[in-house]
């Protein structure tokens, strides 16, 4: 696995010989080590030119850009070199055939619901009373396979998440009132954290898709549309409970992040620079966490689990093996 570089300070991004150099406003420079880089995240106001973008393309490095508030703006996605017309045709066929599409959509939502349930079971076993929420989610999850349309099963998933988020006040030890998920814009510290870290999972998923022959714009749960990589939205649903949610619970319960890390005048929209650094360091560590993979017989990182998900989907699309979405077993 290659390295991920996070740029938070303002400055200049430029090419020097066969490397990318970031120079901060304080004059300090850092070599981003292109030979080991997979992706670069920019959170500050950074100046760059087409020379840099061309060099990133040559080295197949994705550039993810976030705005002043830490919300995802977009990605510079280098020209694809790992392509397969055969896979592309089959990927489109599975979208265009509604019966085939909904099979994949159900698999994704079943896995997402399962992983949500496992999170609640994890904390329920640690002295937090969550059985009521678990029972409600289990009942709803059992109806996903009976859904006859994408809209219907996404409605079920929406109800599952509503119940799930209503349990968070029981899990989070800080005195923060979190009633419901609000996205545009987030209305409190917890919603801002969810938006920020979910966008990190989305971009990591996009980077892993890029390393395979899948087309990131053709999806099965979310409707493909312009200006978005909708397959990343699909697959990140599976991994948000494992990577994003558990990270939020841990950091809040250890008081690594508090309301003091946000600008209260912006209604907790703006995350202070030091807090971003803490979150990104923790996120990077989470991606490097390993678990013993029973089928492979070896330890794999959380980040590589996402790549494996892409490979499993490819095998399904070409008729080699039926897709079974990732479900936490620990």
UniProtKB/TrEMBL annotation:
<keyword id="KW-0051">Antiviral defense</keyword>
<dbReference type="InterPro" id="IPR019858">
    <property type="entry name" value="CRISPR-assoc_Cas1_HMARI/TNEAP"/>
</dbReference>
<keyword id="KW-0255">Endonuclease</keyword>
<comment type="similarity">
    <text>Belongs to the CRISPR-associated endonuclease Cas1 family.</text>
</comment>
<dbReference type="GO" id="GO:0051607">
    <property type="term" value="P:defense response to virus"/>
</dbReference>
<keyword id="KW-0378">Hydrolase</keyword>
<dbReference type="GO" id="GO:0004520">
    <property type="term" value="F:DNA endonuclease activity"/>
</dbReference>
<feature type="binding site">
    <location>
        <position position="157"/>
    </location>
    <ligand>
        <name>Mn(2+)</name>
    </ligand>
</feature>
<keyword id="KW-0479">Metal-binding</keyword>
<protein>
    <recommendedName>
        <fullName>CRISPR-associated endonuclease Cas1</fullName>
        <ecNumber>3.1.-.-</ecNumber>
    </recommendedName>
</protein>
<keyword id="KW-0464">Manganese</keyword>
<dbReference type="InterPro" id="IPR042206">
    <property type="entry name" value="CRISPR-assoc_Cas1_C"/>
</dbReference>
<comment type="subunit">
    <text>Homodimer, forms a heterotetramer with a Cas2 homodimer.</text>
</comment>
<keyword id="KW-0238">DNA-binding</keyword>
<dbReference type="GO" id="GO:0043571">
    <property type="term" value="P:maintenance of CRISPR repeat elements"/>
</dbReference>
<dbReference type="GO" id="GO:0016787">
    <property type="term" value="F:hydrolase activity"/>
</dbReference>
<dbReference type="GO" id="GO:0046872">
    <property type="term" value="F:metal ion binding"/>
</dbReference>
<keyword id="KW-0460">Magnesium</keyword>
<feature type="binding site">
    <location>
        <position position="237"/>
    </location>
    <ligand>
        <name>Mn(2+)</name>
    </ligand>
</feature>
<keyword id="KW-0540">Nuclease</keyword>
<feature type="binding site">
    <location>
        <position position="222"/>
    </location>
    <ligand>
        <name>Mn(2+)</name>
    </ligand>
</feature>
<dbReference type="InterPro" id="IPR042211">
    <property type="entry name" value="CRISPR-assoc_Cas1_N"/>
</dbReference>
<dbReference type="GO" id="GO:0003677">
    <property type="term" value="F:DNA binding"/>
</dbReference>
<dbReference type="Pfam" id="PF01867">
    <property type="entry name" value="Cas_Cas1"/>
</dbReference>
<comment type="function">
    <text>CRISPR (clustered regularly interspaced short palindromic repeat), is an adaptive immune system that provides protection against mobile genetic elements (viruses, transposable elements and conjugative plasmids). CRISPR clusters contain spacers, sequences complementary to antecedent mobile elements, and target invading nucleic acids. CRISPR clusters are transcribed and processed into CRISPR RNA (crRNA). Acts as a dsDNA endonuclease. Involved in the integration of spacer DNA into the CRISPR cassette.</text>
</comment>
<dbReference type="InterPro" id="IPR002729">
    <property type="entry name" value="CRISPR-assoc_Cas1"/>
</dbReference>
């Amino acid at each position: 696995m290659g390295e991920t570089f996070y740029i938070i300070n303002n400055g200049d991004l430029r090419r020097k010989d066969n490397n990318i150099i970031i120079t901060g406003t304080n004059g300090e420079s850092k070599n981003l080590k292109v030979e080991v880089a997979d992706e670069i995240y920019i959170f500050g106001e950074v100046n760059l030119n087409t020379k840099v973008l061309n060099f990133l393309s040559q080295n197949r490095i994705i550039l993810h850009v976030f705005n002043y508030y830490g919300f995802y703006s977009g990605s510079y996605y280098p020209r694809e070199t790992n392509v397969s017309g055969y896979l592309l045709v089959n990927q489109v066929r599975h979208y265009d055939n509604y019966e085939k599409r909904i099979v994949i959509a159900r698999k994704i939502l079943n896995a997402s619901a399962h992983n949500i349930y496992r999170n609640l079971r994890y904390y329920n076993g640690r002295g937090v009373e969550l059985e009521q929420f678990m029972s409600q989610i289990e009942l709803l999850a059992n109806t996903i396979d009976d859904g006859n349309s994408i809209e219907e099963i996404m409605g079920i998933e929406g109800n599952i998440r509503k119940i799930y988020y209503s349990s968070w006040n029981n899990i989070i030890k800080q005195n923060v009132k979190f009633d419901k998920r609000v996205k545009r814009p987030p209305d409190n510290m917890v919603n801002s954290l969810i938006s920020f870290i979910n966008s990190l999972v989305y971009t990591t998923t996009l980077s892993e898709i890029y390393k395979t022959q899948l087309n990131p714009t053709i999806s099965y749960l979310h409707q493909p549309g312009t200006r978005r990589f909708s397959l990343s939205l699909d697959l990140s649903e599976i991994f948000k409970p494992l990577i994003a949610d558990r990270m939020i619970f841990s950091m809040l319960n250890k008081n690594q992040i508090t309301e003091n890390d946000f600008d209260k005048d912006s209604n907790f929209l703006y995350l202070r620079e030091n807090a971003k650094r803490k979150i990104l360091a923790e996120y990077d560590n989470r991606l490097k966490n390993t678990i013993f993979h029973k089928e492979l017989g070896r330890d794999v990182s959380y980040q590589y689990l996402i790549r494996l998900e892409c490979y499993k989907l490819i095998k399904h699309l070409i008729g080699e093996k039926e897709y079974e979405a990732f479900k936490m077993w620990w």
